[in-house]
Amino acid sequence: MRIKALLVAAVSCVSSAVFAQTSVTLYGVLDEGFDYTSNVASERVYELTSGYASGSRWGMRGVEDLGGGTQAVFQLESGVNVSNGAAGQGGRMFGRQAYVGVRNAQYGAVTLGRQYDSVVDYLAPTTANGNFAGYLFAHPFDNDNTDNSFRVNNTVKYASPAFGGFRFGGTYSFSNASSFADNRQYSVGASYANGGLLIGAAYLRADNAGLTDAGAIAANDASFVARRMQVFGAGIDYTFGAATAGFAYTNASYRDPVTNGYIGGSLASGGDTLKNLRYQNFEVNGKYQFAPDFFVGAQYVYSMETYDSASGKVRPKIHSAGLMADYSLSKRTDVYVQGVYQKVAGDATGSVLDHAYVPGAQGVSSNSEQFVARVALRHAF
Question: What is the pTM of this model?
Answer without folding.
Answer: 0.91
